[in-house]
Design a protein that fits this description.
Oligomer: heterodimer
Number of helices of chain B: 13
CATH class of chain A: Alpha Beta
Strand content of chain A: 15-25%
Structural class of chain A: alpha/beta
Number of domains of chain B: 2
Distance between the termini of chain A: 23 Å
Number of helices of chain A: 7
Order of helices and strands of chain B: HHEEEHEEHEEHEEHEHEHEHHHHH
Radius of gyration of chain B: 33 Å
Order of helices and strands of chain A: EEEHEEHEHHHEHEHEE
CATH superfamily of chain A: P-loop containing nucleotide triphosphate hydrolases
Largest sheet of chain B: 6 strands, mixed, barrel
Shape of chain B: elongated
Number of domains of chain A: 1
Radius of gyration of chain A: 17 Å
Largest interface: A-B, 30 and 24 residues
Distance between the termini of chain B: 28 Å
Structural class of chain B: alpha+beta
Helix content of chain B: 40-55%
Strand order of the largest sheet of chain B: 4-5-10-7-9-8
Number of strands of chain A: 10
Strand order of the largest sheet of chain A: 6-7-8-3-9-10
Number of strands of chain B: 12
Largest sheet of chain A: 6 strands, mixed
CATH architecture of chain A: 3-Layer(aba) Sandwich
Chain lengths: 225, 401
């Protein structure tokens, strides 16, 4: 079985000359489809940089990166934008919802932006996802009126909108209380189990990491365990 | 792109006060543009109507023929047959041409005339005058003689004379009095004063007199034909083209009013140029206002742009959202400014009712469509820079802000 994501010898350097900082130092990692993986490591170890590269928001300085058999290092911005839209979902630490839009509009965004309009099918899918996140009563609420946990669940629903193969979550529970964090993780586990969506979750929280079937530890720019 | 329009509208309605201020700023610029257009256009109309409204727009004058000469075989002029000074060149076939000229499109009036110089005598007082013989019934065809009458009537008949108020005052004349008019050819006749006019033009009110065409024939010994044909047009600016058409139709030397009016045309052009500058400044103000407001909006929305890019929005989508915002602001501001301009111009008198002491605003020359179109185009232009800046936002940096 071929891997969903493969990175090999990944190097990322910020700045140049004496000010150059090498964050990733030849990191290699493979993710199989359907995995629920925790990405652990201290601050500055390169977790967020790795997620950013895996999310095609940034290109590595050196090394290879492919997903679903597509070489993502060689792809141009337009191709990466479409690839990201179709195959990758994001959940950020601070939810990063569009503040002037309702919960449903936020969730439907990834589909609407690709299709050029908010189709009835997209709205139906959005409603289903929000209902699954326990937010059926909050569908038309402006996101500013939602609690932190509710916002993060909207963000998870948005990440799943286009049925991506990979969801990258950068400290998705880092800004939530324990109960809300557990609720979000329970939803992620459920979706991973039911739909086979691959999750890579960056976290400092051992408790959260223990809920994942695989743990990858990053230290000093390489995988250490 | 429907979705881009939705996002743009949402951004505009999300900051209502900011959007309202921006639209108001654009509207004020458009208002100035329209006000200046109406003022400059109205002023040009006013100046033209005051300077050439009462003169012939196309004139056909009889051409003086060269005097016959006798030349020796070696090229020396031996004799010149000098015509009497009283002889006047004539348009002998005026009766044929006048109906034909009246059919030319744009021609509103045709006035065949006999003109010449003369002396007006009242007792011991003598005044040198310019005499114009007009066809009865066409007295006000070119100069609105009826409109300028202060006493009596402009209607000219046999043995009647109409003259200016200054001349009447100089000669202490009253209606019904008789006076003697002697032409430059020495023919004299006694006429009865039937009307006094005042145009406000000092030279004219002092030295121009009007008699009937038959009276002028007697005075200037012209049993047939006229010395000039004056033509009035519906559109002053069509004089050059109409003169060409009349020339082609009749073969006569039709001269438009613009010939010899270079200084007036230069003044009007300079005025129009001033108007273009003022309107350009208004447009530049709009462009700068929209650009700066959208740049601020772009900066404020950097994190959202980053999120959109992360969710799969392409650079072109981001550009479209911000350019659409600019276009919508331009359209709203353009329409409001045009409506505001129209309402502000309504109280001003119409172009036909311009009076000294009032601003000669012409509501029909507000250039409303042009103002709205240029504003929308200007706003789109102004939004390109902020939109491109937005599209270049690095999602990673923006999201982490």
């Amino acid at each position: 079985m071929s891997a969903l994501v493969e990175v090999e010898g990944l190097v990322k350097t910020f700045g140049s000359g004496e000010a150059a900082t090498r964050v990733l130092r030849g990191l290699s990692l493979t993710l199989q489809g359907g995995e629920l993986t925790a990405l652990l490591g201290p601050s500055g170890s390169g977790k967020s940089t790795l997620l950013t590269i895996l999310g095609t928001l940034m290109k590595p300085t050196a090394g290879s990166h492919s997903m679903l058999g597509t070489d993502l290092v060689a792809a141009d911005d337009r191709a990466l934008t479409l690839f990201r839209n179709l195959h990758i979902g994001f959940v950020f630490q601070f939810h990063n919802l569009l503040p002037d839009f309702t919960a449903l509009e936020n969730v439907a965004f990834p589909t609407a932006v690709r299709e050029g309009r908010e189709t009835a099918a997209a709205r139906t899918r959005g409603r289903e996802l929000l209902a699954r996140m326990g937010l059926a009563e909050r569908i038309d609420f402006p996101t500013a009126n939602l609690s932190g946990g509710q916002k993060q669940r909207v963000a998870v629903a948005r990440a799943l909108m286009n049925r991506p193969e990979l969801v990258l979550a950068d400290e998705p529970t880092g800004n939530l209380d324990r109960a809300a964090a557990m609720q979000v993780m329970a939803l992620i586990s459920e979706i991973n189990r039911d739909e086979g969506t691959t999750f890579l979750i960056s976290t400092h929280d051992e408790k959260i990491a223990s809920l994942c079937r695989r743990q990858v530890v990053v230290g000093d720019g390489v995988v250490t365990g | 792109m429907l979705y881009g329009l939705k996002i743009a509208l949402r951004y505009l309605t999300a900051s209502k006060a900011q959007t309202a201020l921006l639209v108001l700023g654009v509207a004020v610029g458009v208002f100035i543009f329209i006000f200046m257009s109406a003022l400059i256009g109205g002023l040009a109309e006013f100046i033209l109507s005051r300077t050439v409204g009462d003169i012939s727009h196309v004139t056909i004058k009889a051409e003086d023929a060269d005097p016959p000469i006798l030349i020796s075989p070696d090229g020396h002029v031996l004799a010149v047959v000098e015509q009497g000074r009283a002889r006047t060149a004539t348009l002998a076939d005026a009766a044929t041409w006048v109906p034909l000229i009246e059919t030319v499109p744009g021609v509103t009036a045709v006035s065949p005339q006999i003109t010449g110089a003369g002396f007006l005598t009242r007792g011991a007082q003598v005044a040198q005058v310019g005499v114009t013989g007009l066809e009865p019934g066409r007295e006000s065809a070119i100069l609105d003689l009826d409109g300028y009458m202060v006493e009596g009537t402009a209607r000219l008949g046999s043995g009647l004379i109409v003259l200016g108020q200054t001349l009447a005052d100089d000669l202490s004349l009253r209606l019904g009095q008789t006076l003697r008019l002697q032409s430059s050819g020495g023919v004299s006749t006694v006429l009865t004063l039937s009307g006094i006019y005042r145009t406000g033009n000092g030279m004219m009110d002092r030295s121009s007199i009007f008699v009937s065409l038959p009276t002028a024939r007697t005075l200037f010994a012209l049993p047939q034909g006229v010395t000039r044909i004056e033509i009035k047009l519906a559109d002053l600016n069509a004089a050059d083209a109409t003169a060409l058409r009349i020339r082609a139709l009749t073969g006569l030397d039709a001269v438009p009013w613009t010939d010899g009016a270079e200084q007036l045309m230069e003044a009007l052009n300079a005025q129009a140029q001033t108007g273009y500058f003022l309107k350009s400044f208004a447009l530049i103000t709009i462009v700068i206002g929209v650009a700066s407001a959208l740049l601020l909006s772009t900066y404020r929305r950097r994190p959202e742009i980053g999120i959109m890019r992360a969710m799969g929005a392409g650079r072109s989508f981001v550009v479209f959202v911000f350019v659409t915002q600019g276009a919508l602001v331009g359209l709203l501001g353009g329409l409001s400014g045009a409506a505001l301009g129209y309402l502000a111009l309504l109280p001003f008198p119409t172009r036909d009712a311009f009076r000294p002491g009032t601003l000669p605003m012409d509501i029909t020359q507000g250039s409303y469509g042009l103002a709205i179109t240029l504003t929308v185009l200007g706003a789109i232009l102004a939004s390109i820079l902020p939109a491109r800046a937005a599209a270049r936002v690095d999602p990673v940096t923006a999201i982490s802000q």
